[in-house]
Amino acid sequence: MKKKNLARLIVGTMSVLVLTACGGSKSGNAVDADQQAVQDTQKEAAQAVENDTAPESSLSGIPAADSFEGGSGTEADPYQIATKEQLRLLADKVNNNEKEYVTAFYVLNNDVLINPVDDIESWETTAPEYNWTVIGNGQDYCKFMGHFDGQGHTISGLYYKGNSKELTGNSSYAAGLFGIVGENAVIENVVLKDSKIIAATEAEKGIGGIVGETDILSNAVIRNCENYADIESENGLTGGVVGAVNKGAVLENCRNYGNVQSKGGGYLGGVAGSFKGYRMSDCENHGNITGSDSGDIGGGVGEISPAVYFEKNIKNLDGTRADFDYGANITANECTVTNLYNAGSVKRTEGSSVYSSAGVAGSIANGGDRLVISGLVNDGELSAADKYAGGVIGSLLIRKWVNDESLTTVSAAENHSDLVSVKNE
Questions:
Q1: What does DSSP say about strands 408-415 and 5-7: parallel, antiparallel, or unpaired?
Q2: Where are any strands of DSSP class E within 331-407?
Q3: Entry pTM
Q4: What is the pLDDT of residues 161-195, one digit of tens each?
Q5: Which listed residue, of 123, 249, 317, 394, carries a Cα 20 to 30 Å from 10's Cα?
Q6: Are the CB atoms for 251 and 275 separated by under 8 Å?
Q7: Residue 425 lies in a domain
Q8: For the chain, what is the domain count?
Q9: Is residue 244 part of a domain?
Q10: CATH number for the domain including 55?
Q11: Which pLDDT score, from 0 to 100, does residue 50 have?
Q12: Phi, psi for residue 84 in degrees, rounded to 5
C-alpha cells in the first residue's frame, strides 16, 4: 500500500498542549473533563445493579470437574487442564478466593470447546447452552494471581453475557476469559476463537477477550495471546485482548482479530481499551472497532494515560484492607509503548466535539510519569465525525514536570490510510 503520510513527532518541553491530526488544540481542562466523565460512568455501575435493567439469563453454567487432570500447582508441576469442566473448576476456586489455587500454576493441555460453534451466527438471538463463568470475576475482591500457560492451545465456543442480578458485592467487576488479574499474575500463550462476549449492563467495567482488567498496582504480565472473539459492551473500558491495563502491568506480543463494539461509550481499543501500565510492546489489531458518541477510540488502544493511583479500597486476599506504601510498590515510574500496529477499521457512529478517535491511539495524556512511545503504524480506515481525529493519534496532552523537563516522547508514527468523514468544528 502506498504510504500517504509519514509523521514523526518528537515532543519537546511544553506545559499543557494537545496536538491533533486535524488541526486545532484541546485544552487540559477538556481532557480532564473526558477522564472525569469516564470516572462518573464507572460510579454508575452499582446503580445498574440496583436498577436491574438487564434481562434475566436462562443460561446454565458449565458443571465443574471434581479435580484437575493432574499436577500439584507448583511451577515444576502445574495443574493440568484439559476440559471445559476443569476450566470451570479453576473459575470456582479463584472466585471463592481459595488462596492455594488463586496463586497456583496452570497449563492447558488440549484445545477446549465450551459450546458448539456451528450456530455461532445465531448467538445474537439464541444463546448457546453454557454462559461462561469468568475466572476472577471481581466479586468480594477475588482475582487471579497465578500463572496460566495456554501452550498455544485454543479455547473456543466461549459465550458470556452479563446479568446485573449476578453482580453483587464488589463493584469492580470485569469480563473476559479472565476477569481481574492481580499481583504476579502471568497469562500467556492463550488463543480465544469463535467466541462472543457481551457486557450487557454498565456493571462490567473492564471488558476484554483474554482479560477484563489488571488490578491496580499489580505487576501482571499478559503476553503471546490472541483474541478472535467478538466483543460488545454498553460502557466501561473495552479492548480486544484486555479491557484495562493498569499501573505496573505489561502487555506484549498480543493480537486481536475480533470485532470490538461499544454501544454506550467508554474507552475503546482493538488491543486494549485503556493502557496505564508499565510496558506495551509488539501488539497488533486486525479487527473492526466501532464506538458511539462518547469516550476515546483507537484501533490499537482507546487511551494511553499513565497516572499515579491512590486507591483507598485495595483489599488483601482475606478481605482485609491492604496497607500500601504507594511509592514503594511501583519501582519504575516509566511507561513505554512500542510497535503498536492497526489494520482494522475504526468508526464512531455519532460525532463528538469532545472525545478523540484515531487509527492507533485515541488519546494520549501524560499526568506525570515518563512516557516513551514509538513505532505507531496505522493501515486501517478511520471514519469519525469528530473534532479530534487523526490517522495515528487523536489527541495528545503533555504536562511539564519539574525543571521544565519534558517527560513525553512520541516518535516514528506512520499513517498509511485516508481519514473518512472527518469534520472540524
A1: antiparallel
A2: 334-342, 346-348, 356-358, 361-366, 370-378, 382-383, 388-390, 393-398
A3: 0.81
A4: 875 444 443 334 789 999 999 999 999 999 999 99
A5: 249
A6: yes
A7: no
A8: 1
A9: yes
A10: 2.160.20.110
A11: 39
A12: -65, -30
**425 near 11, Cβ under 8 Å?**
no
CA distance 319 to 423: 50
Q: What is the pLDDT of residues 357-378, one digit of tens each?
A: 999 999 998 766 678 899 999 9
Contact between 413 and 8 (Cβ < 8 Å): yes
- CB–CB of 266/238 below 8 Å? yes
Angstrom distance (rounded) from CA 417 to CA 400? 32
Q: Is 320 within a domain?
A: yes
Q: Which of 255, 258, 282, 295 is CA-nearest to residue 271? A: 255
* 271 touches 299 (CB < 8 A): no
113-167 pLDDT, tens digit per residue, is 999 999 999 998 899 999 999 999 887 789 999 999 999 999 999 999 875 444 4
Cell numbers 460453534 correspond to 117
* Residues comprising the chain, all counted: 425
What is d(CA 311, CA 330) in angstroms, rounded to the nearest whole number?
Answer: 13
Q: Any idea which residue has 476440559 for its cell?
A: 83
Q: What kind and span of H or E run contains 328?
A: helix 326-329
Q: What is the pLDDT of residues 49-65, one digit of tens each?
A: 334 333 333 456 899 99
For residues 273 and 300, the answer to whether their CB atoms sit within 8 Å is: no
DSSP one-letter code for 321:
B
Note whether residue 300 is domain-resident. yes
Distances (CA, A) of 286 to 185, 223, 337, 341: 26, 17, 18, 9
Q: Quote the cell numbers at residue 395.
A: 489527541
Name the residue range of residue 226's domain: 5-420
